[in-house]
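New to this. Explain the following:
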Amino acid sequence: MDSEATEMKRPAVIRHEQICSMIMTREQFKESRMKAITEGHFYELDGFEDSFGDQELQFIHKEQRPGEGLVTIQDGTTNEEVLAVLIDRMHYLQSKFPCRENAIVITKLEESLMWLNKRTEDRKARGVEGKNEK
């Protein structure tokens, strides 16, 4: 192979500055149309095509109650379930529109899920899972 053909097959190198410019800042995040109705628990999401607030995302909401421990205030989903949905969707998109970026997203989502599961296992091993303790 000649050097020109080799050059064409090398993946693009992304510099640190480019990555930082691609990451959504807190201010940009606040400007998104996603709205936290109950901070950390209930969200209204923007529809892609037009309307806002058509989609809702409810996470489980628990509060510490004296003598009762953590009590479920509102049932809902978990971070782990949402990540599993995103992983499934990205695998689907990768099968239709394969690219390096999709593969990286899948890897990072799977890594995020792995860390959440590790946290849960560590809490279970310490006997503090489901409790407001460290």
